[in-house]
Amino acid sequence: MNDKTLTADQNPSHPALKEFQQKTTPSAGSAGPKKKRKVKAGDQLDAAADRHSPDNVSQELEETSAEPVSNPASAINSDNPGLQVCLSRPLSSTESLRQISQQLNGLLSESATYINGDSGPPMVTYLFRFLKMDPYDWFCGPESHMSVCYMNMVCVSNVSEESRQQSSELSEHLKLRVNENNGLKQEVDELRKRLEMADSMLQQFSSQTGSPSEHQQVQLLLEEKHQIEAHTAQLMESVAQLQVERDQYAVQIQEEGHAWKDKTEQLLSQVRLMSEERDSTAAQIQELQEKITELENAAALMSKEQEPQAVSQASGPSESELALQETISSLQEERDALSLQYQAQVRDNEQLSRLVQEQEVRLEELERHAERSAEEAQDRLQILEDVQSDKATISRALAQNRDLKNQLAELQNGFVKLTNENMELTSALQSEQHIKKEIARKIGQLQEDLHNAKEQLQEKCGELASAQEHRDQCLAHLQQYTAGYQQLVAEREHLHHQFLQQAQLMDRLQHDEVQGKVQLEQSHVQLQEAQEKLNQLARDNDELKTEVQELLNSSAKLAELQDLVMRLVGERNEWYSRYMSAIGNPDLLSSGGERLHPADGHTESPGATAQSHSYKLIPIQFAQMSRFSEPVQLQALHFQK
């Protein structure tokens, strides 16, 4: 069976394909048990390496194309189960399109890698991969042989277009190299002329007597000669590199020409195989048509013979007639399918022939390009020969230069001696001048440093004197502050001792006050008033603290603080004397006579006699103690509670 029978499977929009699907789908249900084969694409792609060889590929093609078909009907019905499975399967257009797109993407990626030089030509590798496939896969695989060949031809056309672009780029690169080589040749000519001029000048200088200016000119000429030699060596290296690149381009073009010839031969062999398969398919179709005509004739004869029996047997047709009708209908369907396949194969063959012609045209273009590259290679060889002749002339000029160099050696020795002596004298003179300049610069710098140091010393002396005066003042103030502080500490200790005594007395008085409720209430009122006065005295104490701090900052406020302390001490003594007199006369607490307040000098009413103890004595003592000690004030508050 031809391996292009299912080309229409890859074109789901074709009307012949729809008709073929409608005809083949019902017949799938009436088919008997069929043998199915597993198709593993991965195993086929990863087969042994010997399947990739061209000998095995040609053998497989010969085996598949040379299979004899003795009985087409029996071959279709029994001997070719793969075709039955293929015909019985429902065709999925979306799946086939997806597989074709995947194959095209793979071909494009492989062609890109081939252009980048990563792997071999994608068309050849894909042909080997396809030819490894089993004949069953050619009929019933996800892609048909004709569609794959068409894709391969498209890939080959793309690769040929890219190779043609690459060859044009190489030709442009070769032209650039040729232009560079011509430029280098011109430079070599110019250098040769300059070298000849230098030789003539050297000969003139050697014939004359040596002088310092002539020696300098000789040295310049020698330097120019060395530069010319170095440039000539670079030119020779570039010429050698161009020759190597020329050989590489020639080899690459030859390899590409051989590769395209091989690809064209393979495509021609495929076209021949397809034409043979087309002929065999046409022969099969003709045999099937002859068989159908024979069966129709036999059916007509049988119908004529059985006309009298049909009258007697009006019940229905016989089983043999039904079988013949079924075979006729099946053969007609097979004939229609084969005709469709034959038409599709004819179209594919026409496309392949057109692609082969295009490939032949492209191959001719490549051959012409190879001829042009060969001509360019001959031109480059001529250029290389010219460069080699230039090299010989340059070598002769170099030999003459060496002779002149030997002649100039004596002149150079004398000139070198004179220049050495002059250099020694000039260097000694310059060193002495430099030393004198350094000494003068250092002396000036030392004088400036000395002047700056004197000014800084005077400034430091003034700052030191002012600092000493400030230190003496601070020391005097500190001594005054320490003396006042010691005096205040002594007074605080004395007052604290007195406060302890007064606290004991207050305990006794509190015990006496508990005995009378009226006196207790009055004492509470007096205590509240005393609390207010205590708060006032606390505020006064805070003010005194601020004043003490101000006194510590200035000596003028210290005198005012001393006066205030003296007044407070006088008031304290006065209150203390009155307190002692009150203790000596306890009847004064309950008496109703008028008393003179020592602080303000006004008289009090008889109702205020109960305040003589807790109102007059206690707040003053608290105020006096709060000026110097916080713990004393806390004890007084505890006593009031």
UniProtKB/TrEMBL annotation:
The keyword Coiled coil applies. GO terms for cellular component: cis-Golgi network; Golgi cis cisterna; Golgi cisterna membrane. GO terms for biological process: Golgi organization. Residues 40-54, 594-603 have a biased composition (Basic and acidic residues). Keywords: Coiled coil. It holds the Pfam family GOLGA2L5. Residues 174-208, 517-561 form a coiled coil. Residues 1-82, 302-322, 591-611 are annotated as: Disordered. Residues 1-13, 67-81, 309-318 have a biased composition (Polar residues). Residues 234-555, 556-583 form the Golgin subfamily A conserved domain. This is Golgin A2. The lineage of its organism: Eukaryota, Metazoa, Chordata, Craniata, Vertebrata.
